[in-house]
Amino acid sequence: MKLGIGIATVKTQVADLMTQTALEGKAWDEIDWRRNMVFTLFGFGYFGCAQYYLYVHLFSRWFAGAGRFVNQPLSAKLRDFAGQRAAAGQILFDLLIHPQWVLPMYYTLKEAVNHFDEFVRSPSSVMVYAVGKYWKNNFDPTNEEGLLTDWIAFWKIWVVGDIIVFGFCPMWARLPVNHFFSFMYVCVLSFMRGA
């Protein structure tokens, strides 16, 4: 678990650094270290701790038989309807339920780091502001970017990622493969919402 938390933390930090330097063209002396701290903390707290608990502990209870399913050859998977339901349940949960708390948590962490003094004085006001910003960016019909902008970016990575992770990866490979897709997603999130 400690190794996974370390990998998730470093992976998320590096994804933001790569986004700032390679995609946004910043020199090392122009890097926004506060922004990088948001991603480092998000990598530790969410991708390292919370997601580990969700995928390893909760999913194994909620979706019994998932481990057996992913370890079967493809010919056996095609006949294993209970395993297919477990895989589909994990994929649907990750695509439809998961973003409902991941995205507001990111917005809240970002605002807490960027407005730390205000967050210390009134955490609830910063949280309300952050969730309002998330809501405006995704559900306000007057938003120039369109509706569900963050969700669509999430789905562009995770539809394929979840099918691979929950449908084909053996249990021991789930988190490493998930980290690969997560790295790509963090680059997208950093590019869209980091600044």
Task: Give structural notes.
- By secondary structure, the protein is mostly helical.
- It has one domain (2-193).
- The chain has helices at residues 2-23, 33-62, 66-70, 74-77, 81-97, 99-114, 116-121, 123-139, 149-167, 174-193.
- α1 packs parallel to α10 (174-193), α2 runs antiparallel to α10 (174-193) and α6 packs across α8 (123-139).
- The protein is globular.
- The mean pLDDT is 91.
What is the percent of helical residues?
over 70%
- Largest sheet features: none
Structural class: mainly alpha
What count of helical segments does DSSP give?
10
Portion in beta strands: under 5%
> What do the pLDDT scores average to?
91
> Which overall shape is indicated by the principal axes computed on the Cα atoms?
globular
Oligomeric state of the chains present here: single chain
Keywords:
single chain, 195 residues, mainly alpha, 0% strand
How would you briefly describe this protein structure?
With 195 residues, the protein is an all-alpha fold. The chain contains ten helices and no strands.
Structural topology:
Elements: H1 2-23, H2 33-62, H3 66-70, H4 74-77, H5 81-97, H6 99-114, H7 116-121, H8 123-139, H9 149-167, H10 174-193
